[in-house]
Each structure stands twice: as structure tokens, then as C-alpha cells.
Specification:
single chain; 10 strands; elongated; alpha+beta
Length: about 240
């Protein structure tokens, strides 16, 4: 006990401490540690933001592609009989076509299963950087006594760019030689003959994150080849079936 008291007494009266050099050295080391910690936190926040931007671009781009694919696969001839070509018109930035995603007529005449297709238009706006879908509801008697009333306009994707050197839309017809495949690129704008012969539509674009103003690594490229459901490679001379 006496030893402890003596030690405490000695420490109480000891005027020794850190030298100025030791204080400066410890301050420098502490500053470096703090700065390093801040850099780690900053990098983590930045990486997290980039990851969220990438997820945002992928999610929005995928939803838009699914919506366009569903619409394009619904293409139908404007019958009866072989009927009019499913594609009304198209170029690199838009395509307009007849489609059937359900019983159009049942909306106004429940129980009536008369075939009345809608008309769809998918458009890429290079100025506004948007992809838009418009749907017109059909009424009347196909094919020549139809009227269409605009039912819906919606923006499928905002902040979108083109894939370098690749247009938003491309159209393909069946090759004229074996093996039969949809690899004949059709010129745009589509003429009357090619409108009736288009069996596949390719969609390409770059989806950017909502808050990013230019294409960078956070953007995502999307591409899909949509087969017209009325096409049959085993009967290319009459494909699509509107021919």
C-alpha cells in the first residue's frame, strides 16, 4: 500500500510530458488517418450512387423494352382474308402498326368478340430523348371501314440515347436463299412492298440514369429482335400472312 501511495505521489508531482516534436508528429499522423477515413467514406458514397444509377438505368430500360416487345409481337393483319399489312409505316425513329393485345371490342360492347385491332405507334424523339407509345382504339368494319380514336399516349422511357452507329429501329425480311432467315435489312422509310415483307423488327437504344445528362458507364445498352408472330420461315413467300 505504501508503494502505491509513493507511486501516486511521484506521478502527482511529475512535471514531465510530451515534447513539441512528439505533439507535431502525433498531430500529423492523426490528420492523415482522418483524411484517409474521409476518402474512404467519400469513395463509398460515390460508388453507392453509381450503383444506384446503374440499377435505375437497367430497370427503366428493361421495362420500356418489355412494353415495346409486347406491342410489336401483337401485330396482326387488318383482315378478313390476308388483309392489309400489319405495319402501316416506319423508319429509323418510328413504327406504326396494327396490333391486338386483347378484345378491343369488349370495352364498348361486352360479349361481342368481333375482331377489332388497335393501332400502335412507337416513336423515338432524338431532341427530347424519349421513347413514346401511342395507341388508337379501332372501330368499324375491317379492313376498309375502320376508324381509330387516340386512346392513350405514354412515355415509355426518358433520358435515352441511340447506340453508336445503330438506329433505334431496323426492319428485316426473309432471305431469298437457303437457309431461310430474317437477315435481309430493309431500307427506310419502308415502302409498300417492304411494309408487307417485314418479319422482324430490331430495337436498339441506350438507357441513361435519370439524373445523368450524358452517356457514361452507368448507362446500359439494350437490343432486341422481335419476330412478327404472323411470320413463318417454312412459308417465306407468304410471310407475314398478310401477303
Amino acid at each position: 500500500m505504501r508503494i502505491v501511495r509513493a507511486l501516486l505521489q511521484r506521478l502527482r508531482h511529475d512535471e514531465g510530458g510530451f515534447s513539441l516534436t512528439e505533439l507535431l508528429a502525433s498531430s500529423a499522423v492523426g490528420t492523415i488517418v482522418v483524411l484517409a477515413a474521409f476518402q474512404v467514406i467519400d469513395a463509398s458514397v460515390s460508388l453507392s450512387a453509381k450503383t444506384q444509377d446503374r440499377v435505375d438505368a437497367i430497370a427503366r430500360g428493361r421495362l420500356a423494352m418489355e412494353a415495346m416487345t409486347q406491342s410489336l409481337r401483337s401485330q396482326v393483319c387488318l383482315g378478313p382474308g390476308p388483309g392489309l399489312a400489319a405495319i402501316v409505316g416506319g423508319d429509323s425513329n418510328y413504327v406504326e402498326f396494327y396490333g391486338d393485345l386483347g378484345d378491343n371490342n369488349s370495352r364498348t360492347n361486352p360479349g361481342d368478340d368481333t375482331f377489332l385491332p388497335d393501332k400502335f405507334r412507337l416513336t423515338y424523339d432524338p431532341v427530347g430523348k424519349t421513347i413514346t407509345e401511342q395507341v388508337w382504339q379501332g372501330a368499324g368494319t375491317p379492313p376498309n371501314n375502320m376508324t381509330f380514336t387516340l386512346r392513350r399516349t405514354r412515355v415509355l422511357l426518358e433520358n435515352v440515347d441511340l447506340v453508336p452507329s445503330t438506329p433505334f429501329l431496323r426492319y428485316y425480311g426473309f432471305s431469298g436463299t437457303e437457309p431461310i432467315a430474317p437477315n435481309r435489312l430493309l431500307a427506310v422509310p419502308l415502302n409498300d412492298n417492304d411494309r408487307a415483307r417485314a418479319v422482324q423488327v430490331a430495337i436498339s437504344y441506350v438507357a441513361r440514369p435519370t439524373r445523368v445528362a450524358s452517356t457514361d458507364r452507368r448507362s446500359t445498352w439494350f437490343e432486341n429482335y422481335v419476330y412478327v408472330r404472323t411470320s413463318d420461315p417454312n412459308d417465306p413467300d407468304r410471310s407475314p400472312q398478310c401477303v
